[in-house]
Structures are given as structure tokens and as C-alpha cells.
């Protein structure tokens, strides 16, 4: 070794110590990367659980209400999930029916019970050949003649194989399909119970009102 040269540090094997340190450093880096991956996976799982818990806390939308319909007055798509945790009275309406005057009772019922959690949903339909007009004409009758303030949707089919998906689900849940205009379905807050009322049950009838009050009392 020449004068001034720094001695190379070797182990007993004669291999320079720096050469032996490099594999150790790479192994350390690999371990740290593995730990990072595990921690990231843990964070992802934790966040997923937190989001699921938040969804449960706020109440996931019942499958019965997981549908969208165009709003009658302007055609804007509306999700029925916005009505979760409300007691719903769903009615298939018509403008030229002997029961059309039930609009008045529905308006009164909604105004009386909305602060308690009742929402009336109107679904105009020409299934019984008594709603032949356009959506604009239906809207004019509802909003200008009867002063309807509860949600109304564009015309759709409510019975048979061509019924809209919501009415198919209501028929399945209640075991009953509309036999005429102004058939009514009463849905519990959590969407687990659906009770069916035929057209003869008017909005101010005692049977329907008792059922509504019973559902409103459930929190």
C-alpha cells in the first residue's frame, strides 16, 4: 500500500465492508416499502369502513325508492331517494276521472301532515284512458286548478308488464296493483312496509288517515 492511501476495511472473508453494506441497505429499503404498502392498504380499508358507517348512520336509500322520474312541471330528473325517512302516499292520478276531485283532499292532507313527515307523490297515468293530455296540460290542471304543492311526476304506466319500475316494486311489495285511478300506496319511513288502498279510500277517509297516523308515529 502506497503512502497516503487509505486502507480498505475488510472483514474476515476479505470482502470490502462497503460491498457487504449495500445488500443490507437494499433489504432495508424493501422492508420499508413493504411497510408503506401495508399501511396504505390499512388506511384504505379504514376509510372504506368509515364511509360505510357514515352511510348507515345517515340511512342508505331503501331499494324501493332507488328510482328516478322527471318532474311534471319542467322535466327535471328527480331521485325518489330524497324522500327517504318520510312516510309516502303514492297516488296514480288522472284529470278526467270521477275521482279527480280527490286532488282537493290530497292537497289538504299534505298541507296538514307534511310537517309531521308525510309526502304525497303523484304519478299521472293514462292507463285507464282518462289522462289523454300532455304533461303540460296535466301540470296546468294540477298546479293552477287544484293548487297542488306536493311532488308530481310526468305521465307513466302504472300497471301491467309495462309499469314503471317503481310501480312494479310497489305491486310486488304490497301484492296489489292499481285497478283504477287514485289508487294509493302508503310506504313506511324505512321503505320496509307498503300498504295498498283502492280508489274508494278518499284522502279524508278514516281508514287511510288512521294508517297514515300510525306510520307517522313510527320514528
Give an account of the 3D structure.
The protein is an alpha+beta fold. It folds into two domains: 1-58; 63-216, Glutaredoxin (3-Layer(aba) Sandwich), CATH 3.40.30. 39% of the residues lie in helices and 13% in strands. The protein is built from five helices and six strands. It has helices spanning 17-58, 102-113, 135-145, 165-174, 206-216; strands at residues 68-70, 77-79, 87-93, 118-124, 184-187, 194-197. Strands 4-3-5-6 form a four-stranded mixed beta sheet, with helices on both faces. The protein has a two-stranded antiparallel ribbon with strand order 1-2. Helix 2 links the parallel strand 3 (87-93) and strand 4 (118-124). The chain is elongated. The protein starts with 16 loop residues before the first helix and ends with a helix. Mean pLDDT is 86; it is low at 47-57.
Annotation keywords:
219 residues; alpha+beta; Glutaredoxin; four-stranded mixed sheet; two-stranded antiparallel sheet; 6 strands
Order of strands across the main sheet = 4-3-5-6
CATH topology of the largest domain: Glutaredoxin
Q: Which structural class is indicated by helix and strand composition?
A: alpha+beta
CATH architecture of the largest domain: 3-Layer(aba) Sandwich
In the CATH scheme, the class of the largest domain would be: Alpha Beta
Gyration radius from CA atoms, angstroms = 33 Å
What is the overall shape? elongated
User: What are the low-pLDDT stretches, counting only 5+ consecutive residues below 50?
Assistant: 47-57
Give the overall pLDDT as a whole number: 86
What level of helicity do the residues show? 25-40%
CATH evolutionary superfamily of the largest domain: Glutaredoxin
Number of spatially distinct domains: 2
- Terminal Cα span: 91 Å
Order of helices and strands: HEEEHEHHEEH
Amino acid at each position: 500500500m502506497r503512502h497516503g492511501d487509505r486502507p480498505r476495511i475488510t472483514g474476515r472473508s476479505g470482502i470490502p465492508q462497503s460491498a457487504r453494506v449495500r445488500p443490507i441497505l437494499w433489504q432495508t429499503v424493501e422492508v420499508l416499502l413493504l411497510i408503506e404498502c401495508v399501511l396504505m392498504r390499512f388506511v384504505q380499508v379504514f376509510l372504506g369502513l368509515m364511509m360505510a358507517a357514515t352511510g348507515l348512520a345517515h340511512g342508505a336509500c331503501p331499494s324501493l325508492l332507488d328510482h328516478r322520474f322527471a318532474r311534471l312541471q319542467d322535466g327535471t330528473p328527480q331521485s325518489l331517494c330524497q324522500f327517504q325517512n318520510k312516510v309516502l302516499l303514492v297516488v296514480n292520478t288522472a284529470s278526467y276521472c270521477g275521482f279527480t276531485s280527490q286532488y282537493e283532499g290530497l292537497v289538504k292532507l299534505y298541507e296538514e301532515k307534511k310537517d309531521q313527515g308525510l309526502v304525497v307523490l303523484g304519478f299521472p297515468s293514462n292507463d285507464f284512458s282518462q289522462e289523454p293530455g300532455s304533461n303540460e296540460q296535466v301540470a296546468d290542471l294540477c298546479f293552477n286548478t287544484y293548487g297542488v304543492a306536493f311532488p308530481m311526476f310526468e305521465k307513466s304506466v302504472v300497471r301491467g308488464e309495462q309499469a314503471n319500475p317503481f310501480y312494479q316494486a310497489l305491486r310486488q311489495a304490497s301484492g296489489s296493483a292499481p285497478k283504477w285511478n287514485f289508487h294509493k300506496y302508503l310506504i313506511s319511513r324505512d321503505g320496509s312496509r307498503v300498504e295498498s288502498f283502492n280508489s274508494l279510500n278518499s284522502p279524508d277517509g278514516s281508514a287511510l288517515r288512521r294508517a297514515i297516523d300510525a306510520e307517522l308515529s313510527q320514528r
